[in-house]
Amino acid sequence: MTESPLHTNDSMSLAGKLALSRQFHAMGASRTHSWKWTEESFKPAFEWLMAKPGRVRLGDYLRASESKEVWRVSLPQKYGGYPIIYKEFPGLMHPYQGLLQHSLPAREAANFATLKTLGFSISDVLACGEQRHSGVLDKAFIITRCVEDAADGALLTSAGEWADKTRLRFNFCRVCLEQLAVAHRCFFFHRALYAHNLMIQNSSIEKNDEAPALIWINAAHCTFLPFISLRHAIAADLVTIFIDLRMQALEIKELCEIYLACNPTTGFTVDTLWAELCTFGRR
Question: Which of 42, 90, 165, 194 is 20 to 30 A from 8 in CA distance terms?
Fold first, then answer.
């Protein structure tokens, strides 16, 4: 007997939530005390990295904002010789805002486990941790393996070096939405769907631009949402990527049709989804 789409979605959603819970448990992620976790094979490299915190600052400074700093660090050959990404999140402006809550790095590590369970290609999580004083979050970090031989999706934005690659941009967005639809069927939403949060494997676009292979490198804001939030959450993810890539109206309608073919249980038609996107943020 073939499973109905709804039954399959429920099973996938449960599997994703179990993966989330298991990752929190495996890390020993506390909401009140300091903790740190690392993959077994990464422990020697982690100990080397943490022995002198300044070693992170000797790496390449990739990005900074009020909420995080991002560094790229190359490990010595004796510890694997591969590059890693170190993200550090300072404590929040309001001292009690993060009290009894998991930090963004902890949530990101668990969200990556959910995405992996749902079949996404992700950057591997190597270590994670939080530093707290009397339960108040002081800082938190996550370390992932740097995706090599890949291009930043931000190259396809209007300010990027690949801004003129319109066919690749369309197919990048198409593949992104085909994969996103899998998460949405499980009521799992990204909530920060910008092009720079995905990488394109260079080998997948060597011959043509039709089937870029994507790797998801940021999952800090992903979350499961209830059914009542479905329509708004779908529109939020789609609007974010469409605006970021400056997609044209005809392209958006075609992409909406592709998305709905992959996620047919939303209750949307192409026209009603288009209307939802057009009025998003005005209500």
Answer: 194
Q: Give the angle 244-183-8 at the CA atoms, nearest 5°.
A: 155
CATH number at residue 183: 1.10.510.10
Cα–Cα distance for residue pair 237/234, rounded to 1 Å: 5
What would the two tokens of residue 239 be?
């609007």
Cβ atoms of residues 79 and 44 within 8 Å? yes
Radius of gyration over every alpha carbon of the chain, rounded to an integer in angstroms: 20
Q: Are residues 128 and 210 in the same domain?
A: no
- The total of structural domains in the chain comes to 2
Residues 133 and 161 both lie in one domain: no
Q: How do strand 136-145 and strand 125-133 relate by DSSP bridges?
A: antiparallel
Token code pair at residue 253: 């309608």
Distance CA 99, CA 96 (A): 5
Please report how the helices 5-27 and 104-117 are oriented relative to each other, as an axis angle in degrees rounded to 10.
140
> What kind and span of H or E run contains 60?
strand 60-64
Q: What is the pLDDT of residues 52-110, one digit of tens each?
A: 878 999 999 998 776 789 999 999 999 999 999 999 998 665 556 667 789 999 999 99
Same domain, 197 and 134: no
- Residues 141, 154, single domain; the answer is no
Tens of pLDDT, residue by residue over 148-158, are 999 999 999 99
The two structure tokens encoding residue 233: 């959450």
Domain boundary among 126, 145, 164: 145
Which tens digit of pLDDT belongs to each residue from 225-276? 999 999 999 999 999 999 999 999 999 999 999 999 999 999 999 999 999 9
Q: Which domain holds residue 215?
A: 150-279
Q: Which of these three, 123, 145, 167, is where a domain ends?
A: 145
Is the Cβ–Cβ distance between 23 and 110 less than 8 Å? Answer: yes
Strand partners, 74: 83
